[in-house]
Amino acid sequence: MSNRYVMPNHYLLRLAERPPTDMAKLISILQPLSPVVRKRATELLDVIKDSINTPNAPVVLPPKVEATQEVQEVDTHVNPSPLWSHGE
């Protein structure tokens, strides 16, 4: 699983088809919860509720969180194991 992973695409479809109105419904739709969703579930529910209450209004998202607060950067440099050196 990617460290930038939030939720599977089919969860987004579930949210669009049956928008939750309370935290219990949100959590039941998104099982198992990813760490990011668990941490920001209240914000997610607020955005969903706002979109239900004003369906034609543009959605105003919460301020962007710095990547270092929520997501750790990935070291893209791969150090091959000596077991995979094939005798080199």
Helix content: 40-55%
Report the total helices. 4
Stretches where pLDDT falls below 50 for ≥5 residues?
68-86
Relative strand content: under 5%
Main sheet specs:
none
Tell me the overall shape.
globular
Distance between the termini: 31 Å
How many whole angstroms does the radius of gyration measure? 19 Å
Structural class: mainly alpha
Order of helices and strands: HHHH
Counting DSSP E segments of at least 2 residues, the number of strands comes to: 0
Mean pLDDT across all amino acids: 75
Overview of the structural elements:
- Mean pLDDT is 75; it is low at 68-86.
- By secondary structure, the chain is mostly helical.
- It is globular and about 35 Å long.
- The two termini are 31 Å apart.
- It has helices spanning 9-17, 23-29, 35-53, 67-70.
- The protein has a domain at 1-58.
